[in-house]
Amino acid sequence: MAYTPLVFTGPVRDTARCGRSAIEKRQTEGVIALSATGLAGDEQAEKAFHGGPDRALCHYPREHYDYWKMMYPEIEDRFVAPFFGENISTLGMTEETVFIGDIYQWGSAVIQVTQPRSPCYKLNPLTDVSDFAQVMQDCGRTGWLYRVVGKGDVSSDQPLKLLTRTSAVSVREAAAIAFHLPFDETEYRYLLQASGLSASWTLTMQRRLMTGKIEDFNRRLFGSAAAV
User: Fold this and answer.
1) Which residues contact 149 (CB under 8 A, 6 or more apart)?
2) CA distances from 214 to 133, 192, 201, 205 (A)
3) Which helix (H) or strand (E) holds 6?
4) What mean pLDDT is reported for the chain?
5) Which residues fall within 8 angstroms of residue 90, CB to CB, at 6 or more apart?
6) What is the mean pLDDT of residues 123-137?
7) From CA 19, how far away is CA 22, in angstroms rounded?
8) Could you give the angle at which helices 185-192 and 199-211 cross, rounded to 10 degrees?
């Protein structure tokens, strides 16, 4: 199966709702170089939480925007790709059908799914909904991230083609284990066995096993004010 992507990139800039951010991306046509750090012309503002080898690309299913329009009709005009700052948007690929470790050919590049996206507090001012990041996390419509296994040239004219499935853990299941289920050592060990899982998620699951508890999500979901 092949999936035709819309492709988006953008620099870090001052934004009206999210401060200094690269979340406001624009559709890109033509051939673009894809390296280990992402698409040429694309940037991340907070590199401790965005970008890097395991988070070089963000993919968000375009069909999810219909759900958000239904949930928040008062701002339905905003829900058009790439509103959530994604690099790739497709129809036909969702968290249920995409698996951790999946390897895709895209143009002359090869990319691998590493983790679900972890929604962050910047989605709250972006939507003017105070708990939007929490809502996205709870409903599982998070999208997912990739590492670049082999650099190359890509474009919106070149489909994503699944080459290899390396695990039995879907993106939806991974998000449920990390975000929705109570503490469960068996589930964490199951997720850790998923080939291709990102280093940050591997460390998070290992820390849960070491400490016997789930980390606090509030700072990520609500920002520094949540720590006060």
Assistant:
1) 103, 110, 111, 112
2) 18, 15, 13, 9
3) strand 6-9
4) 95
5) 3, 4, 5, 6, 59, 61, 62, 160
6) 98
7) 9
8) 150
Provide the CATH number for the domain formed by 1-220 in this structure. Answer: 2.40.33.20
Query: Which of 95, 106, 133, 96 minimizes the C-alpha distance to 32?
Result: 106
Separation of alpha carbons 62 and 154, rounded Å: 19
CA-CA-CA-CA dihedral for 21, 121, 117, 72, to nearest 10:
-100
The CA distances from residue 155 to 8, 33, 106, in Å, are 10, 9, 8
pLDDT digits (tens, 9 = 90+) for 156-183: 999 999 999 999 999 999 999 999 999 9
Quickly tell me which residue has 């609500």 as its tokens.
222
Confidence check: pLDDT of 47 > 80: no
On whether the pTM is more than 0.85, the answer is yes
Q: HSE-up of 119 (CA within 13 Å, CB side)?
A: 26
Read off the tokens for 150: 């082999």
Residues forming a β-bridge with 86 = none
Window from 41-50, 103-112, 140-149 with minimum mean pLDDT: 41-50
